[in-house]
Amino acid sequence: DINRSDSGGRKQLHWSTLRGDSKTIAVLLQYGAHVDARDRLDRTALHTAAHLGLLETAQMLLKAGSDVNAVDLFGNTPLHFAALRQSFELVSALLQWGADPTVRNREGLSPL
Question: Which residue ranges contain the repeat ANK (predicted)?
Fold first, then answer.
């Protein structure tokens, strides 16, 4: 099952994103991987791409329909992670895709 979870709730799409493996990500999406599948922390593959500063991977996930404003268990969006990493190109791309810079996480912090 392409959308099967491991013990941490991560799917194959999460692991391929962690590796920055865009070829495998493309195949997984082509064969029905849920682009916004969540792990145990309610993070999507886009959260992972943003956390790692993977601009091309993030763009691929966004083109596949990933929710740019998905909120994890702690209230963080992908924009929170990209800003924390100081990945300015990725921050800019997420904003262009409609990321909301005013969303506050559980600590009351906005991404910017």
Answer: 8-40, 41-73, 74-106
